[in-house]
Amino acid sequence: xxxxxxxxxxxxxLGGATLKNRIVFGAHTPNLSHEGIPGKRHFGYYRExxxxxAAMIVVEPMPAHRTGVLTRGNFLAETDELxxxxxxxxxxxxxxxxxxxxxxxxxxxHGDQENSWEPYWSPSxxxxxxDPWGSHAMTGPEIDELVAAFIECARRDRDAGFDGIxxxxxxxxxxxQFWSPLTNKRTDKWGGSLENRLRFSAEICEGIRKMAxxxxxxxxxxxxxxxxxxxxxxxxxxxxxxxxxxxGLVDYFSSGTGSYxxxxxxxxxxxxxxxxxxxxxxxxxxxxxKHARVxxxxxxxxxxxxxxxxxxxxxxLVSIVRGQIADPNLANKAKGGHSADIRPCISCNQLxxxxxxxxxxxxxxxxxxxxxEHEWGGDATPPAVAPRDILIVGGGxxxxxxxxxxxxxxxxxxxxxRSGELGGQFRLAAGQxxxxxxxxxxxxxxxxxxxxxxxxxxxxxxTAEEIRASGADAVVLCTGSVPSRSGFQRAYPHRDGLxxxxxxxxxxxxxxxxxxxxxxxxxxxxxxxxxxxxxxxTALHLAQQRHRVTIVTAAEKAAGQLDxxxxxxxxxxxxxxxxxxxxxxxxxxxxxxxxxxxxxxYTGDIxxxxxxxxxxxxxxxxxxxxxxxxxxxxxxxxxxxxxxQARTASMAIYEARKLGLTL
Length: 663
Ligand SMILES: Cc1cc2nc3c(=O)[nH]c(=O)nc-3n(C[C@H](O)[C@H](O)[C@H](O)COP(=O)(O)O)c2cc1C
Ligand code: SF4
Fold this sequence. Notes:
This protein is of the alpha/beta class. An eight-stranded parallel barrel has the order 3-4-5-8-9-10-11-12, surrounded by six helices. A five-stranded parallel beta sheet has the order 15-14-13-16-27, covered by helices on one side. The radius of gyration is 27 Å and the shape is globular. Iron/sulfur cluster (SF4) is lined by residues 322, 325-326, 345-352, 364-366.
């Protein structure tokens, strides 16, 4: 038992295993396999979280059957070929005292034929939510085949050394499609009464118990109410859980949030959702179980939050997924009394589910070692062979990470920043509505620099001359990028800028967020970023400040660039509620005086409208002045992040870590 977190660090018996604490690295799809095989990338990812102190890991789901293949990175379905590969992972994680489970899934009617090349098997042939197609209502023998496939999957997991499995019975997938009257219209023994609707899940659990014995953990991920007439209420879910629990069929229930049916973005909730999102559902589950344990999922994030959930008796376990992607050592740091050293997840979703949604392997904006543990040896950095004097110029995300890594490796580091604060553009982003979690990351980074005795000098705009005279063994330029004031738009590649961009009533999003310009009441925001945060976040900021906001964008969908990080729909919802108008598929032909000539890109028609202020949200220009001035200086000069090319904080942090490991 550890002092600050007495509940979190108390052991718990689960099935035939004992968990050393209550922290689960819950089920998720990092999409890490290599040609369907869990290889080195997988091994490194899970070993890192096992080393970091997680009590239980639920490994990336396995499609139960060929009709359930969902991602390009999915494991090969229905084959024993995977067993020795998984065995390597379970052996390694067991050696760190971690209990290993494996999720088994099948999304039923919401399949993806582009990946599976199979029809989608569902109880009653509901339309797929992945594409415009339907699904195939299973015949009785097909249902038997699917039940047997789930049990076979669990048999492979047992043979691969897993301590148990986690059945995906949430988010309206095949198991809960059988449960719900919305998706199960069958009139045979698989539909109708509660007992009939539960038969599919019960037969799977009974078959696994019979095959693997009572010590083999059977977990189940279940989401809360289906908020539609005729859908399962939370009381219905309690009845289902109680029914399965009374028969001893399940060892733990985990409270997933969101669903294919209602809010998809709630499955991996960004900062647009509150903390403790699944904890009340967990509490409802806990009210009705007599045997099984309950795990609270979603937006628990920190050890302090976890302790609160446990101490309030809402759950027996907590799943912290993104918190441990961002810092694989979360558990050990909390146990050792070093919670302040935990690198905070900022709930941005940009490189975790953001990459998964584009079918790449997962990484993390604040922790680029995620998914690369096998290449970089994990999150920790090795000591430098020969400590040197390193000068970092610029204190945005790239500079902060480069300084941290270099200092952690034993170099003597000096960081100079021309403004009065560290954080660069990331600090501006933190000021946009609901994006305050970025601030916690900056506080963490500053704390780490202090601890590592990095010499930080603010309001220091170093010239090339001063850099040459600094005596540093190596200089890292992280001078970032600056907003373009030209009004260049991709729709006019032949024009250098926007007619009227040099007027006094035209400013950039930086001017707005830094408070340098107070726009008039009626604002036009030119979004040439396809809705990416600088554009959408500033529109929300302006609307919150009671400006009337119109966005003009060449994109065909508002905030479309945010979709992959599951923040597109929640942003559009905010646009709608705040009255932000979005003029799609349009460009700004000119802004002269207060007249905007807006051109429809399909028809070429021009509409003239009046605005007090035009705010430019266009692609930044890199600040490479020092790079050019130091060329041929004979110094070891590195340039990273926006200094090289204007882009995202994730790339800046990645390049900083990568460079830091070689300095
Ligand atoms: C990249 C990613 C993929 C996910 N895939 C799954 C999945 O396959 N099965 C599942 O049950 N949950 C999945 N989830 C949801 C997580 O289990 C968890 O509920 C969610 O991340 C919220 O918890 P957190 O706030 O601790 O991250 C996924 C989450 C992420 C970030
Ligand atoms: S990418 Fe963002 S949301 Fe995902 S784990 Fe990293 S910090 Fe958290």
